[in-house]
Specification:
The chain is mainly α. It has helices at 4-11, 26-30, 33-62, 77-96, 101-124, 139-159, 174-178, 184-187, 200-222, 233-240, and strands at residues 136-137, 198-199. Helix content is 61%, strand content 2%. Strands 1-2 form a two-stranded antiparallel sheet. Helix 4 (77-96) packs antiparallel against helix 9. The longest helix has 30 residues, at 33-62. The chain starts with a helix and ends with a helix.
Length: 241
């Protein structure tokens, strides 16, 4: 007796000339329902066996302890010196992009200036403010803060007599130094009120904390003698001591 699905499959193809069943292809048309049923059962069994084998491999891999030690590849003295030099230069560039204390004060002044200008505009339109001591800013206002702060950074660098030819694009210019703080992705991390504004003090804490963490990573990187991204036991003791 045929299975119900095989009988339905057989009935879906109208009889062709000569009383034979016509299918989508000549090979299928010549197969009997029993052969089709056997082929489907064999394919189903194969898929179930492959799934069971995959699950077994995954469970075995989960019980395996990962390897934390990887032997270092042998490098020539010239390659090692080149890698160490590139590592030192990269750390110097990263440290040059960090904001100083006086620059952080300028950033806070820019935020306060944008907030004060908005309050003056709302006072002129007689718009009620929920909190006169609120330092919340919207994303559009934060972009205004960015433009004003970048202008101050570039002006202070020019006033300090920095050589324009020695400046590295993407490292010394103000826009590159603060672009990651004012991105839409960074703004989305903060809790916003009903007007879509974030707390200016919270934003400043985020900037200060990011600078402190980056400086800590730079200090750790300075003790990486072979510039492989890992600190050995002696290097950790040197850093702690």
């Amino acid at each position: 007796a045929l299975a119900p699905w095989a009988a339905n499959l057989l009935g879906s193809f109208p009889p062709a000339r000569g009383g034979k069943t016509a299918g989508p292809g000549s090979a299928s048309a010549r197969r009997s329902p029993e052969a089709l049923e056997a082929e489907v059962e064999a394919e189903t069994a194969r898929l179930l066996a492959a799934r069971a084998a995959s699950a077994a491999d995954a469970s075995t891999a989960g019980r395996t302890i990962p390897s934390f030690f990887r032997p270092k590849s042998a490098a020539t003295p010239l390659a090692a010196e080149l890698r160490n030099t590139a590592h030192r230069v990269a750390l110097q560039y990263k440290e040059r992009g960090l904001l100083e204390d006086d620059e952080l004060e300028d950033l806070w002044h820019c935020i306060a200036g944008v907030v004060a200008r908005r309050r003056d505009e709302e006072a002129g339109r007689e718009v009620e403010d929920d909190d006169s001591d609120d330092n919340r800013v919207s994303y559009e206002e934060l972009l205004e803060v960015r433009d004003a702060f970048v202008a101050r950074l570039d002006a202070s660098r020019v006033n300090a007599g920095a050589n324009a030819s020695a400046a590295v694009k993407g490292v010394d210019d103000g826009a590159s130094r603060v672009a990651h703080y004012f991105s839409a992705r960074a703004f989305g991390r903060f809790r916003r009120d009903a007007r879509g504004r974030v707390d200016g003090r919270t934003f400043m804490e985020f900037v200060v904390r990011h600078i402190a963490l980056t400086q800590s990573r730079i200090n750790l990187g300075c003790h990486d003698a072979d510039a492989d991204g890992w600190l050995e036991e002696a290097e950790i003791f040197e850093f702690v001591g």
